Amino acid sequence: MRELKLKEYLENSLTVEEFVTDLENSQQKTGYDTTSVHIEQIEDGEFEITKSHLIKICDDLLNGKLQPIDVNTIAFAFMFSDYFIWNGESQDGKIVSEVIYDWDNPEIGFDLTKENFEHWKEYLETGKTDYFTKEELKKKFRGVKKNGMRRNGL
């Protein structure tokens, strides 16, 4: 994946279909529990990620145009980029930061499921949610441990 294509997608100058082509094979499983992610970075400048950008990503996933692995790759790119930034001090920036972190780390947070993307979208739009609580996480990990439940998938 190229950060330039991600920027163009967020700016609506590249269709989601064109962007998905660039995303293909960005993640490669390199071991039992390791994955390599290839991202071509933009060297100069900055691009601020806003809640509306993340809502766009949610909408495209909910409409079947993006897959959970695509969103996970996007979140990884945001987390480790010098180009993509957000204001973690503002209330909106804190929400952006939380959602990106969740998308980048589904194994320690919430699964990348359609239902959870509906909740993330609501959280981005309203700043409020009753779903993303410590109790929900406890249920998740109790269920995984006791029932051997799958963690990811729509």
Q: Can you offer a commentary on this structure?
A:
There is one protein chain. The protein is mostly helical. The chain is 53% helix and 6% strand. The protein contains 7 helices and 4 strands, in the order H-H-E-E-E-H-H-E-H-H-H. It has helices spanning 3-10, 16-23, 51-62, 68-79, 91-104, 114-126, 134-147, and strands at 27-29, 35-37, 47-48, 84-85. A two-stranded antiparallel sheet has the order 1-2. It has a two-stranded parallel ribbon with strand order 3-4. Helix 1 packs antiparallel against helix 2 (16-23), helix 3 (51-62) runs antiparallel to helix 6 and helix 4 (68-79) crosses helix 5. The chain starts with a helix and ends in a 7-residue tail after the last helix. The relative contact order is 0.13. Mean pLDDT is 87; it is low at 144-154.
